[in-house]
Amino acid sequence: MAVINNAEFTGKIAVLIPCYNEEKTVAQVVGNFRTALPGADFYVYDNNSTDETARLAATAGAVVRFEKRQGKGNVLRRMFSDIEKVLTGFVSLIFGRELTDMLSGYRIFSRRFVKSFPALATGFETETELTVHALELRMPVAEIITPYGMRPSGSKSKLHTYRDGFRILKTILTLFKEERPLIFFSLVFVLLASLSVILMIPIFITYIETGYVPRFPTAILSTGIMLLAFLSLFCGFILDTVTLGRRELKRLAYLSIPAPGNSGR
Fold it and tell me: What's the pTM?
């Protein structure tokens, strides 16, 4: 972890750390951040821990706050509602493109990002929502390489590989549908249209050869699927226009928040 000279900044930095039963690690995390950011303020948000997380965090010099609603997304909403100022030159979010880790837990947010982020997720899919929000609003995004090591002996990860992995995948698909509806529904159109054509080909060949239309139920099903395919495509066009307008409103709301150093202008 690199040490950052606070003289480079013109404002105050706040480090917010969500925790749940992290007595083995919280003091070390706070200490590492304090080494890297000696002039920052440190806040630990305890999410119903049953161990000594809160006490050890306070002993390490952090301000401890509590969020009774279980889930990382709920903690994030509390953090963002409490925060007044987090200054950074750019946002460290990990998602696609040239970046390498969409699910990184260490992130730096600008005040504009915090005040414009809706925080709808409740669990580990929050990181996905954070990333997509930044990319959709074309915010400055950068990746900072940091050391990554094993958890201390005796501590346990709260991540459930299959359950949380499924929730993250579901969130990605939902955000894909909401933020790129034309592409999403175009893919649905291709899938349904292909299925309809596959069902219709044997019927069409038989009609050419005999002049009869056999298997009326299959023909009706194929026609219905094709109608659904075109309906999906039309929905994609309509929702794409709606999404464009919504994205412009979100971008204007983001830009309406004063940037650091311009609050008095």
Answer: 0.47
